[in-house]
Amino acid sequence: PRHEILTYEETFRLIRIAAELGVSKVRITGGEPVTRRGIVDFVRQIPEIPRITSIGLSTNGTLLAREVTPARTMAEALGDAGVQSVNISLDTLDAVIYSQITGRDFHSQVLNGIDAAIATGFDQIKLNAVLMRGRNEDQLLPLIEFAAARNLLLRFIELMPVSTTDVLSENNFMSVMEAKRLIESAYGSLIPETEFRTNGPAMYYQIPGRGQRIGSIRGMTNMHFCENCNKLRLTCDGKLRPCLGSYLEFDIMGPLRAGASNEQLKQFFLNVVERKPR
Questions:
Q1: Can you say how many angstroms the Cα of residue 127 is from the centroid of all Cα atoms in its chain?
Q2: Does the pTM exceed 0.85?
Q3: Average pLDDT of span 93-118
Q4: How far apart are CA 264 and CA 240, in angstroms?
């Protein structure tokens, strides 16, 4: 129901408060954020907030090629509105497996969306592939070649239990190190690039002899994964989460709509940060 969702005006207010406390980057995510009505106008107002210097979008890519006005794609509209970087989910190049994973026959739309993002010319486009045993281990090399042909940054991500359903098991979990061994069997030893960083926890490697860079996110097997995390998640229903991989959340919509002052909401943010798991 609409009244159970933060309005854009409420979200802007919370972003402003977060920015005053030191937040400089906003990432618009989901679900699928591009489905929300008015998303382009929402994005366009974020750069007007002082101290916000970076705007990213995480998307499944299925709507990026859609025309929002004649001869203008959603990707172009978002780029013009201020989005600088885009993360696009692409777990497989097999359309049948894609449908099995997502429950939607939208694989061609994703590929068209990637092309639309490239045509828009975002500062950075990253492809995210979640590793799933029995589903896409045979797709690692095709995905690398796909990314290389388009000069895109590809990251392999360990499956993490971040949903409300039980998605993780020994049967479907595949570690980054196992994927690395499969990749190295085809390309040779990957070269660590410890100095290269993006806005997140990924570690990067260069494929020998070709200059291509790929990344890995070891959320389950890296025991130091959480140490430097500086992210908070604001959910659409007004919960503030100190940890993206935890169900721990605090209702900020309640005090917001009850008339809390900006100073009171700032203290709410600080209290949530204090509860960020070590």
A1: 10
A2: yes
A3: 96
A4: 15
